[in-house]
Specification:
Elements lengths: L5 E4 L15 H14 L3 E5 L5 H13 L4 E7 L2 H10 L6 E8 L2 H8 L3 H18 L3 E6 L6 H13 L4 E6 L6 H14 L7 E6 L6 H10 L5 E4 L13 H10 L1 H4 L10 H12 L20 H9 L19 E3 L5 H10 L7 H17 L3 E2 H9 L10 E9 L7 E8 L2 E8 L3 H13 L4 E9 L9 E9 L2 E9 L2 H17 L10
Parallel strand pairs: 1-2, 1-8, 2-3, 3-4, 4-5, 5-6, 6-7, 7-8
Antiparallel strand pairs: 9-10, 11-12, 12-13, 14-15, 15-16
Helix pairs in contact: 1-2, 1-11, 2-3, 3-5, 5-6, 7-8, 11-15, 16-17
Bound molecules: 3-methyl-2-oxobutanoic acid and zinc ion (ZN).
3-methyl-2-oxobutanoic acid binds next to strand 5.
Length: 513
């Protein structure tokens, strides 16, 4: 048992399974670079066998990331495992994470397999994976609801076949902290070769206890790896939140007595990047990364903090990266300064053409906004007109008229492939009119599930508005994000970005299916 806690980040795999959070290869690569700066120990880059897109994303991350181990998920079969190994070929360090469900409910109703068949498949999968990679993680899906005797036998076999990490998922977020911690301890005590593997926990947040359960798995159970995601992103209520686990262990080192490899000053930049990329907004009162996490509104608290910071603050905002919100560039900044800032932010655009496109957009923004912050630059490069991402629909121009007592009207010009469209519509407000104008041409039939606006940088009306639009169509849910100082323009961009995602045909196989 080591006294280091391994942080296994699954934002790009389990986080991405959240409806609407799917990311392009370039977006995943950008986040992977940020996770490398954050110095997580393992990046689960995706589920290589689930789609060609996911395979390419895992491969690109494996070929790029040098400082962190890169992992791919694989179901417990030879094809999935071979695809994972193939995608990970270029990695400096790699891990294959193979899984099969072990609860009676999942085996009978989902897999339609007997426990003996599942046991044998788990054994074969680990044996096969171990021939292709020396670092193998095995997960019994729905492990927490599995029958303990059976689970112990499967885990013993997995370790005997060469699994180096045993990860126990609470797949449906059913656990409570004390019981979960005792469950992990029981497994470690009863599996005869348990000391040959690192034990890990993977908790979902359906009852809001993913972080507490994970920490109980560590303290009571003796787990030394926690699987988590930035902002707790993930299916349903999400996964265990990386920033909360990391800051709990670091702030209460007196209790946990565990080391971490994390550079905590990269937490807020990572949180912003994930939120801006996926369109999953962080609630203001979210621990560590919420906009209010370090804001003191009451007079008594403000007075206390001014006199002695630790009266009301247990962490320092700058230690988690809040101080990074600084002016970086302005109207007079040149291309080299811009390129350097991209590099400092870890944003590698693939070609000079992309740098030029981003610089043109930067100049355009600097004309309208005097102070450009890091967040503005991140939003700018997320814009599909900069990256080489699939970009069928593109906004060309928008004008709208609204006056008190009159029904707003919008005219929108946009490209669909090589064809230019002009559309106009009335609406309840200028945003409504603009989206209706686009929809009158595209006729997507998609249902608008969510519309939200946020200021990218706080404290001024000059800030860019960042709009998230969630659309649902034919069983698919997608998020589109758009940023602009004009929120009507940001809304049209967000709508077109969501339509682009619906337009792309890439489908994935969800891990739990
Ligand atoms: O929640 C879960 O069970 C998973 C497994 C695939 C590890 O994500
Ligand atoms: Zn999961």
């Amino acid at each position: 048992m080591t006294d280091k806690l391994i942080i296994f980040d699954t934002t790009l795999r389990d986080g991405e399974q959240s409806p609407g959070a799917s990311m392009t290869r370039e977006e995943k690569l950008r986040i992977a670079r940020q996770l490398e700066r954050l110095r997580v120990d393992v990046i689960e880059a995706g589920f290589a066998a689930s789609s060609n897109g996911d395979f390419e994303a895992v491969k690109a991350i494996a070929d790029t990331i040098r400082e962190v181990s890169v992992c791919s998920l694989a179901r417990a079969n030879d094809r999935d495992i071979s695809r994972a190994a193939e995608a990970l070929k270029g990695a400096a360090r790699s891990r294959i994470h193979t899984f099969i469900a072990t609860s009676a409910l999942h085996m009978e109703k989902k897999l339609r397999m007997t426990p003996e068949q599942v046991h044998e498949q788990a054994r074969q999968a680990v044996r096969f994976a171990r021939k292709l990679c020396s670092d193998i993680e095995f997960s019994p899906e729905d492990g927490y609801r599995s029958e303990p005797d059976f689970l112990c036998r499967v885990l013993e076999s997995a370790i005997a076949e060469g699994a180096t990490t045993i990860n126990i998922p609470d797949t449906v977020g059913y656990a409570v902290p004390e019981l979960f911690g005792e469950f992990i301890r029981m497994l470690r005590e009863r599996v005869p070769n348990s000391d040959k593997a690192v034990w890990s926990v993977h908790c979902h947040n359906d009852l809001g206890m993913a972080v507490a359960n994970s920490l109980a798995g560590v303290m009571i159970g003796g787990a030394r790896q926690v699987e988590c995601t930035v902002n707790g992103l993930g299916e349903r209520a999400g996964n265990c939140s990386l920033e909360e686990v990391v800051m709990a262990v670091r702030t209460r080192r007196d209790y946990f007595k565990l080391d971490l490899g994390i550079d905590t000053t990269q937490i807020v930049p990572a949180s912003r990047m994930v939120s801006q990329t996926t369109g999953f907004v962080v609630q203001p009162n979210k621990a560590v990364v919420g906009a209010n996490a370090f804001a003191h509104a009451s007079g008594i608290h403000q007075d206390g903090v001014l006199k002695a910071r630790d009266t009301y603050e247990i962490m320092r905002a700058e230690d988690v990266g809040w101080a990074a919100n600084k002016i970086v560039l302005g109207k007079l900044s040149g291309r080299n300064a811009f390129k350097q800032r991209l590099q400092d932010l870890g944003i590698a655009l693939d070609s000079e053409g992309e740098v030029n496109a981003a610089f043109a957009r930067f100049k355009d923004l600097a004309d309208r906004k005097s102070e450009i912050f890091d967040e503005d630059i991140i939003a700018l490069v997320s814009d599909e007109s900069v990256t080489a991402d699939v970009e069928h629909y593109r906004l060309l121009a928008l004008s709208q008229h609204s006056e008190t007592g009159e029904r707003p009207h919008a005219k929108v010009a946009f490209a669909a492939g090589t064809v230019e469209h002009h559309a106009e519509s009335d609406g309840n407000g200028p945003v409504d009119a603009s989206l209706k104008a686009i929809e009158s041409c595209v006729k997507s039939g998609a249902e608008l599930m969510l519309y939200s606006v946020n200021a990218i940088t706080s404290g001024s009306t000059e800030s860019q508005g960042e709009v998230t639009v969630r659309l649902q169509h034919a069983g698919r849910v997608v998020n589109g994000v758009g940023a602009d100082p004009d929120i009507v323009v940001a809304s049209a961009k967000a709508y077109l970005s969501a339509l682009n995602k619906l337009h792309s045909t890439t489908e994935r196989v969800a891990a739990q299916r």
